[in-house]
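Regression test case RT-17, inverse folding.

Input:
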């Protein structure tokens, strides 16, 4: 009888414990995730801090958190599971009543990108593992990992002119003090330049045409088409990362030499329509903004590069142009020759080895072997 009574009591205790943890297991459990920095460079380490507290008297014998993030955030010492591009990082806690635990993860940011941490699974259980409950904890953290430039010692960017001007055959920088005629109005022209008398006589908007003078500046054009490779393939991703690292290197050179620079590319970010087209400027803020743009680029193209070049050609009037591409075709060759005839220096940075000869008048710098298969710089 005593044994039966003990068994009944144990069963009653177990049922009461199960009921209690089912009812109160997640009560007053608070979870917070934070980052030590929200913007770093490739290869840098950050801390991801988990804070969990039990605000009630009832202890929590077993609680598991699971962080779901990108595989390119490497948690040191974690028994993580990687599936495709996702990393699952489990963490286990045991909390007594009114206890708070802080856990710090040292995380290496392997590849550039924008990484969100907003999926945190909480799983808890009672003393006997009978009651298992789960819920999503609120988290809204983001880290931007900026790309690392490759070395471009073999490319010399023209230094800023120390003084003087010269007239060139092609429109570079407009000199408002040298009007030389009128022309048809195009999108982007200032309304203050409209020649109203000529507009009346021609029946359409006409603007004052000015002479143009040289001031060193550079446009970086990134081709998101990868030739024979799909941009979403492993090879296409490698070429994309090389293109981005090359762009970052050109930004760095221009920024250090105080040369105005801009980026255009046949892709988009944040769901915006059309391609990327940044303003021409210089300075630390402009440099940082464009590096953040590079960090956000995803493997997609908005259209054929040849069509993109033809559409953008008229608006590209910097003294230098850098084209970063995995191939060279007739559209690119025609664009380079046209700009060269106009007095604009164009250099192609080739990210892939290609078959066939490229004409000798097309300046090429081959950077195909400057990162390894993981996207890390060589040398």
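Golden output:
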């Amino acid at each position: 009888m005593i044994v039966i009574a003990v068994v009944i009591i144990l069963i009653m205790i177990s049922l009461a414990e199960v009921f209690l943890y089912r009812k109160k297991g997640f009560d007053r459990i608070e979870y917070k995730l934070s980052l030590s920095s929200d913007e770093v460079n490739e290869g840098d380490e950050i801390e991801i801090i988990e804070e969990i507290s039990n605000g009630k008297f009832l202890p929590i014998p077993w609680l598991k958190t699971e962080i779901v993030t990108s595989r390119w955030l490497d948690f040191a010492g974690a028994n993580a599971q990687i599936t495709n591009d996702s990393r699952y990082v489990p963490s286990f806690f045991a909390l007594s009543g009114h206890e708070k635990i802080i856990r710090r993860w040292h995380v290496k940011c392997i590849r550039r990108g924008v990484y969100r941490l907003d999926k945190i699974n909480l799983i808890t259980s009672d003393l006997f593992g009978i009651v298992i409950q789960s819920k999503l904890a609120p988290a809204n953290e983001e880290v931007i990992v900026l790309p690392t430039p490759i070395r471009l010692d073999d490319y010399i960017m023209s230094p800023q002119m120390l003084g003087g001007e010269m007239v060139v055959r092609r429109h570079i920088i407009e000199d408002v003090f040298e009007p030389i005629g009128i022309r048809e109005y195009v999108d982007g022209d200032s309304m203050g330049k409209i020649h109203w008398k000529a507009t009346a006589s021609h029946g359409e908007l006409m603007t004052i045409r000015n002479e143009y003078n040289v001031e060193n500046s550079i446009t970086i054009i990134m081709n998101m088409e990868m030739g024979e490779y799909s941009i979403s393939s492993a090879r296409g991703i490698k070429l994309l990362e090389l293109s981005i690292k090359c762009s970052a290197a050109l930004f760095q050179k221009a920024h250090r030499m105080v040369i105005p620079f801009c980026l255009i590319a046949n892709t988009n970010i944040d769901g915006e329509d059309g391609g990327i087209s940044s303003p021409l400027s210089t300075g630390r803020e402009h440099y940082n903004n464009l590096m953040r743009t590079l960090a956000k680029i995803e493997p997609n193209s908005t259209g054929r590069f040849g069509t993109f070049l033809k559409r953008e050609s008229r608006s590209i009037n910097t003294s230098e142009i850098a084209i970063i591409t995995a191939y060279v075709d007739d559209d690119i060759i025609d664009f380079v020759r046209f700009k060269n005839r106009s007095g604009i220096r164009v250099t192609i940075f080739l990210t892939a080895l290609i078959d066939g000869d490229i004409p000798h008048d097309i300046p090429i710098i081959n950077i195909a072997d400057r990162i390894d298969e993981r996207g890390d710089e060589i040398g």
